[in-house]
Amino acid sequence: MSVRKYFGTDGIRGKANFVPMTADIALAVGMAAGLELSRGAKPHRAVIGKDTRLSGYMLEPAMTAGFIAVGMDVVLVGPLPTPAVAMLTRSLRADLGVMISASHNPFEDNGIKLFGPDGFKLSDDTESRIETKLTTGMSEQLAMPADLGRANRLDDAVGRYIEHVKASFPKGLRLEGMKIVADCANGAAYRVAPTILQELGAEVVLLGVDPNGYNINLERGSTAPEAMCRTVVESGADLGLALDGDADRIVMADENGTLVDGDQLMAVIVGSWRDAGRLVGDAVVGTVMSNLGLEKHLRTLGIDLVRTQVGDRYVVERMTTDGINLGGEQSGHIVLGDYATTGDGLMAALQALAALVHSGRPASEVLRPFEPEPQILKSVPMRTDQTLEAKVVKEAIAEGEQRLKGKGRLLVRVSGTEPLVRIMAEGSDKHLIGTVVDDLAVVILSADSAGGR
After folding, report:
1. Which range among 150-154, 214-218, 346-350, 427-431 shows the weakest confidence by mean pLDDT?
2. What is the DSSP letter of 385?
3. Closest to 58 (Cα-Cα) out of 21, 86, 20
4. 73-82 pLDDT, tens per residue?
């Protein structure tokens, strides 16, 4: 397998108009991915969606040109959530799908997420083969003039996805009488989320539905939910929900404005599905970041929590391998295997809303089914990948683990989407875990400043 120069834990990501998020690299990725994933006889087809970032206007036509150059037709669907692209790739029998988005990152960043014909994110091996094509050249594999592809826009893409999401909501159930604050992060769901909630009968108070190319995730969305929480209280809503820029993750708030993260939403859905006999395998898939409180809660229900590394595609891989139909991350990526091949914030929200409607109780009594263990997460800037290999950092990590031995756990990992180190500590003694995190952050910052020595 070749070295992964471009691909991280969730596709390719970086600052727009800087390597690797440049038009020429996007063009090359389109050619390489098209060559790698073209199946059988013609016609070959790729689906391209995007969020609302300004740089999407640069990357979308560049990737389109790359696919056309290798003889692949392109279906353009415009701004739509990531799970919509995965769904349409399967529905249209396309060879691959592309989502141009940097998810929860600020507008300056962008990214390229690739899906196979089955609607699942590509494996590490497939991404590595695409990288090999990027470095070895593809000029001899370009299409002849008569074999170039074409590009067309799918006019009913929005409607198809809306109906797909609504179909996951229990038949006969409605949201009438429910007032919901919906924060769409000025991102990919700014059209579809309000429509879905309103068509199911809810009164919707809207936030983050005026994208201008620059304001995606800006003081809005799942990574900045304060406005959503505040608006729930001010408007007297029953609850609120906040999506991220590409709408593959969700967090919510109860009627008191108290935030509900992905772990709590997973627990709600697990309970609902177990009671309905829909949970497969008596297990769900989480990650190393999933709160210990969730694991303990599931244990009382006779359900196992299977942990993977961080990244929703690793969650999906384990779900597929173990035959499990529910998995997710604390950040709000929740994968409903009966309906979707990747995280879908809107579908997850509807499952939680269904449980709420069935209960007839306030959100504060339903959406927090367990008490989480104290958990502290700190992100530390890192300029060189060698920092975590420094002797002083390794010693500091070992010391932190020893301090928490028998009292909690420590996790240190490199972000796959940003130049950061994530430090997480969890345990019953909040002062202790906070001290461990802070002390370790100081050591990592110092080592990084010294060039990883």
Report:
1. 427-431
2. T
3. 21
4. 999 999 999 9
Catalytic residue of the set 38, 103, 222, 331: 103
| pLDDT of amino acid 311 | 85
CB atoms within 10 A of CB 338: 11
10 Å Cβ neighbour count for 168? 17
Could you give all domains of the chain from N- to C-terminal order, each with its CATH number? 7-155 (3.40.120.10), 161-366 (3.40.120.10), 375-449 (3.30.310.50)
Q: Which two tokens stand for residue 329?
A: 């991350």
Residue found under tokens 């002083």: 392
List the structure tokens of 392.
């002083």
Sequence-ordered list of residues with C-beta below 8 angstroms from that of 206, at least 6 positions apart, any chain:
182, 184, 194
| pLDDT class of 395 with cuts at 50, 70, 90 | very high
Three-state SS for 188? coil
* List of residues 6+ apart from 96 with CB closer than 8 A: 33, 34, 37, 46, 47, 89, 114, 115, 116, 117
β 250-253/259-260 pair status:
antiparallel
What pLDDT sits at residue 4? Answer: 72
Q: In what order do the strands lie in the sheet with 239-243?
A: 203-207, 179-183, 239-243, 250-253, 259-260
- Contact yes or no for 48/66 (Cβ under 8 A): no
CA–CA separation, 259 and 31 (whole Å): 43
Return the number of other C-beta atoms located less than 10 Å from residue 40's C-beta. Answer: 6
289: left (phi over 0), alpha (psi -120 to 50) or beta: alpha
Could you give the CA distance from residue 332 to residue 315 in angstroms, rounded to a whole number? Answer: 12
Q: Determine the pLDDT at residue 3.
A: 52
Tokens of 434: 């906070």
Is residue 449 flagged as an active site residue? Answer: no
- Say if CB 12 and CB 21 are below 8 A apart: yes
Contact between residue 171 and residue 195 where contact means Cβ atoms under 8 Å apart: no
> What token pair was written down for 283?
């297990």
The residues, any chain, with a CB within 8 Å of residue 278's CB and separated by 6 or more, are: 325, 338
